[in-house]
Design a protein that fits this description.
Elements lengths: L9 H11 L22 H6 L2 E5 L12 E5 H8 L8 H5 L14
Antiparallel strand pairs: 1-2
Length: about 110
């Protein structure tokens, strides 16, 4: 399913942000997985260490560098707990993910 709220170059912008922070979560400091890593981990562990790029103002069309934050999945969901309209159904169906960060146990 394609979300038309994101610009066509969103995948490239998100990748650039993740690379700029060295794949380290800007909230909790956990080292996230780069593409192709984590093949020996359980699915839940891989999901928890997946990196997402968050729009601080919750507007997917605002790709200003100051509006973007690279986060691990649990931290990303932390920001969206009350903003459910901007989270995919798959993210919220895995409610266990945002309870705590796998590495730092931060909530």
């Amino acid at each position: 399913m394609k979300d038309n709220r994101y610009s066509p170059d969103w995948p490239q912008l998100a990748l650039q942000k993740k690379q700029a922070v060295g794949w380290v979560c800007e909230r909790c400091g956990v080292q996230c997985l780069k593409p192709g890593e984590g093949k020996g981990l359980l699915k839940e562990e891989r999901y928890r260490l997946r990196m997402a790029v968050h729009h601080c103002d919750y507007d997917p069309s605002n790709n200003s560098p100051s509006n973007l934050m690279a986060l691990c999945s649990p931290c990303h969901l932390h920001y969206h707990q009350r903003q459910r309209g901007n989270v995919t159904p798959g993210q919220l169906s895995l409610g266990f993910v945002y309870r705590s960060c796998l590495v730092c146990a931060q909530q």
